[in-house]
Amino acid sequence: MTDTTTATPQDTHIDLTEQERAADLNIQELKRLVGLVDYDETKDPFPVTGWDAIVFVVGNATQAAQYYQNVWGMELVGYSGPENGNRDHKAFVLKSGSIRFVLKGAVMPDSPLIAHQAKHGDGVVDISLEVPDVDKCIAQAKAAGATVVQEPETVSDEFGSVRIGAIATYGETRHTLVQRTIDGETYAGPYLPGYVARTSTFVKRDGAPKRLFQALDHIVGNVELGKMDEWVAFYNRVMGFVNMAEFIGDDIATDYSALMSKVVANGNHRVKFPLNEPAIAKKKSQIDEYLEFYNGPGAQHLALATNDILNTVDALRAEGVEFLDTPDAYYDDPEMRERIGEVRVPIEELKKRKILVDRDEDGYLLQIFTKPLGDRPTVFFEIIERHGSLGFGKGNFKALFESIEREQDKRGNL
Ligand SMILES: [Fe+2]
């Protein structure tokens, strides 16, 4: 049960991250937005503070950086590219609230990013996490049998130093671990050493919300049939993540396709990873479609937390973002109305925008899903507004998956 109204003395045990402070967020807001919980970091063998950055490899980072500013209301804050010595690729750093996206696109014809993009299409290459002690995490990762892809090293520039290391996770995805404070000194640059501050001439339209999302809630990983439990065990054993919820079998099956899903979270629940695998059904699972077009396991969707989903969705639609459709029957079903009870807005407002509602013993959540963001039917976004519920919309899975299947069918992949 999460109390979102009163502060307890324990609240002081969670510190805001640098990014949250810069975004003017507070602990109470974060408890409501992303279900942040109190926990004792000193007993954690692999303490994780929160997200550091989500790194995407894309076919055209220059244009994608504009898309995320113009459409998703993000702010350009940093850059690395040929102009400042990085001849291989361009990288744009964008922020919204406490979350940072880094978009990388190849410049050199022999850049390794080209092979990555050719194989996977646009996608998430690195779910980078902020940690208080990289060496402790890497030592734990090694002891627990994880693949270390980068040994801890300190990198510096005129803004100070960070210590980074990296471990491999599913597919060709990695977790770079970033320690931003070394011996009491916090790195003061726009992102990492090698990046320079950068702004753009883009100006938001009159009346546009200050930002469309405040934080990142969760990232779903799609893995192969039979591999979900292996990856749950990986996050338990290597990174000390805890299991949050479990959905199996009928919970998330439609007449045609099915999947299984389990959720792991870090100690303070800032970082939540639902892990999906396809389940056997009459037709091809949406997870199989992802695995085929992403060419292996990878990040499927990123859930962006907002405190005003109605305004966010209206703004995104006005910019041309397409969302999955929900039939009117979903909103008119008396059983569904009974189940969700009272929410902060009239159901008609949700119906108009095709926003889904789910309720559990802790509260409710509002959510909606975009269509795939790129050319391949792989990565997409969820917009989520939590009101106490720490779930992932289990009650909506059937309606949601039927909607996904309609799209899958249009693509000839069902
Ligand atoms: Fe989700």
UniProtKB/TrEMBL annotation:
One annotated GO biological process: L-tyrosine catabolic process
Source organism per UniProt: Knoellia subterranea KCTC 19937
Pfam families in the cross-refs: Glyoxalase (PF00903), Glyoxalase_4 (PF13669)
NCBIfam families: 4HPPD (TIGR01263)
Keywords for the protein's UniProt record, in alphabetical order: Dioxygenase, Iron, Metal-binding, Oxidoreductase, Pyruvate, Repeat
Cofactor info, note text: Binds 1 Fe cation per subunit.
InterPro entries on file: 4OHPhenylPyrv_dOase, 4OHPhenylPyrv_dOase_C, 4OHPhenylPyrv_dOase_N, Glyas_Bleomycin-R_OHBP_Dase, Glyas_Fos-R_dOase_dom, VOC_core
Protein name per Swiss-Prot or TrEMBL: 4-hydroxyphenylpyruvate dioxygenase
